[in-house]
Amino acid sequence: MWKDRLKEIIYLLENSNVNEIEASFWGRRYRVVKNPAIITGRTTAVSTDHEGTIDESKPIKTVHTKTVTESNNHNKILSPMPGTFYMASSPENPNYINIGDTVTKGDTLCIIEAMKIMNEIEAEKGGIIKTVLVDNGQPVEYNQPLFELE
Asked: Which of 40, 45, 51, 125 has the smallest number of CB atoms closer than 10 Å to its CB?
């Protein structure tokens, strides 16, 4: 039963602008974070055992992460949402674009299906399609590179 409630919390978090949800039910406390903060110093881990007690004595390693928005993404078209990537509106139709095609701002590049809604993704800038970085029908994440432009 508590697993269903936890799934509901995760679903709400994924489909909202909220970054973090904390809830307490059935004697357990849950904290779900969409984009965790970067940990730069020594801290302690909070872990629970099977009885639900908290052990704060275990140290964890320092975590250093790199920001994705570096200069190497300036020629890439990124996914504006998570979902399933499609190159055409249906399997019978031709792809919106192919490698070597010239695109201008506003051209439809692909479709990302999210929650049974087909979202047409348009080019935010012009250029020539150098590489398609995702396979047709593959799930994509937010800010995942989809295309590389020249």
From this structure: 51
